[in-house]
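If your schedule permits, I should be very grateful for your opinion on a structural question. What I wish to show you is a protein chain and, alongside it, a tokenised description of its three-dimensional fold. Would you kindly read the sequence against the tokens and tell me how you understand this chain to fold? Here, with my thanks, is the record as I have it:

===
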Amino acid sequence: RTVVVDATTVAMTHVHAAPGPWRGAPHPLGATSVRKTRGGDGKTHVEGVNFALHAPDAKSVKLVLYRTTQLLDQNHAKQTTRKGKTEGKKDDVAQVWELDPKVHRSGGIWHAMLPQDMVHDDLCYAYLVDGRERPVLDPYAQGVVSRTTYGKPAPGEECWPIAAGTMPSTTLRTKPKSNGLDIKNLTANIPTAEGQNDRVAKDFDWEGDLPPGHHPADLIVYETHVRGFTQDPSAHTEAPRGTFAALREKLPYLAALGINCLELMPVHEFNELEYYGPNPATGESRYNFWGYSTLSYYAPMARYAACSADGGESYDSGRGVSRELKELVKEAHRQGMEVLLDVVFNHTAEGNEMGPTLSFKGLDQRGFYMMAPMGEFYNYSGCGNTINVNHPMTRRFILDCLRHWVTEYHVDGFRFDLGAILTRSSDKWIEAEVYGANQGEGGAESLPSIALGTPLDIPPVLDLISNDGVLRSVKLIAEAWDCGGLYQVGSFPHFDAWAEWNGKFRDSARAFIKGTDATVGLFAGALCGSPELYEEGGRKPYHSVNFVTAHDGFSLHDLVSYNEKHNDANGEDNKDGDDHNMSWNCGVEGLPPEGVEEDVRLLRLRQMRNFLVALMVAQGVPMITMGDEYGHTKDGNNNTYCHDNALNWFLWDEMKGQQAGQVRFLQGLIKLRKRCSQLRLREFPNAEILHWYGRNADEPDWSETSRFVGFTLRGQNNHCLYVAFSPSHLPEFVTLPPSPGKPWKLVVDTARLPPFDFSGDDLVDVNKDFTDAGVRPYIVSGFYPMLPYSSIILETSE
């Protein structure tokens, strides 16, 4: 980061009694370059780098500077004792400075400034705290230097080598020619104290980038994994596979599909070797593939960068990783796609009280983690620890981090993993500490303390995020549950700003489409955007993010192919993963060696299309999971967190095989959704535009045994859609409602084989005529035949 200070502030940082670090400043936290404009030439000059670290309980702190190149070499050639003690080369450390608490401490912040002649661009940094032999990582480090090759341990099978933070560049770069001033780009064009000149420190040219700014109701979200999307050899990318650069090459495919919002699974620095070791079931190595175990929240995942694999000048001591991710975001914006990041502010990679000390534990573990009096860690995340999100310093850290990703990386929003944890109270949380002492006659003392982890009605961290000037304008999506039993779908404290992953949409859609009793009303409510969950609280349909599948759980193909999970390949005796999947195998479990009968295969294809129709005609925001467009299978495994293989890789050859099939079908549905404004309502539908129908047009069936729901939805210029779902095991002869002025025409019938399942503009005239000839007699007569487990969409002619 770059901080512009005036001469008075710089002079204050120069207080020192002997050669070594200057006193520095306690704010901002992290490592920041300090520069000012000197008199005479009027140009910006780098004064040095300021370091500030929150470690209130530390008795001693040493600032350690490593030579980046030598640290990388050390991590490829160091020895480790069985107790984990690191014995590195002596020459990997460039400088070690012991900070004097009388000079370099202000309250709980340790700080120092190194002048320009003591730093250079090949340095990275960490801290030694209270005599520990292993250095800890600065939570505010904006990049991490450790290993550069994905999945490869250091020698001796060391999976946790030293990790250091990247330093801000001290090199002044020439500012590219401006192509006009814009508000979003002001954060990239750093001004000096006296104005701007032609030489500023600027690592990246955003070229006037602006966010696409899609209304939430217009989003088509695609959940994807950076490595998984291009790691398979069939990706055929010029950039190294599994990287930000390779994903950037594939953006045209997503744009052609109709996607306008990428939701990236975690891209913050994590250790994919966290679970490393032989898988007893397969013999392959186990990995933390998904990445839900953050090591550094400010830093992009270094081993997702092509420059890390290259290891050349473009790596730039880790700063090249940041530039590569920014190129991905910039190109996504050029192609009309917003970028959302999946953030994990519920637990970290440090595990429970028996886990490693990597960063937060060595600095302020009782402030950052929820802990019992005897030192045990609370585990609402199911992953060993729980972040103390509503502690004053922790919520400040979270707010600073989110702002950083918006201003520095131009991301358009966030999805908060296990977001219900954001509502849990910190230790001995007292309302008056945050909101003042004006409640009750006794003031603050009359307010009872609240037990650690108690859900709060007005969580301070959510209040801060929701009302922040920078964050209020981006998309905020909560996974409104956690692993401690807290389920807040529909009741998450939203401050009129938060959307939610609607798990109840998933459950009602799965239940109804497979033919479960007593679910027709739930499914109808889900199609309307779940007003029973969101309307009373003042939210809108687009606050419901609708999904049928996600990265965890069955893929769409497996949802219609397996009744039970088959997680044996995880090496945990099939004990992991959810047992409640609400799936149906259509009569045969999985994919037997001899294959399945054609009727089962066709039924599975229909069911996958039925789910896609439900996603695209429901009010709210549809989310598609990577690979579902071509029917990706994970062989019945609903918890593939540890596999870096074809279970989690997008298989481009299989996608190409479905370009005329399910891929085309989804593409057509997305085009229909974008064309029909009534599928993207800003308000919940009412009786003026929405009418319900049954098998007989005027007789909707809301009984417990109902296997049919149909509705019409009016849009602009009296354009009307008729949608019907029939998850019955029997064929139906449906009475169509009267069309409003213009005759009905068939758009979708999931029972028809491709390409006749979707009547799109890409059909040649002879195929259109063939389709029309097959259905026109029925439609003119006011009826339509529906096969078992099928859905249809009709619309009035333009």
In short: Residues 598-617 form the longest helix (20 residues). The chain has a mean pLDDT of 88.
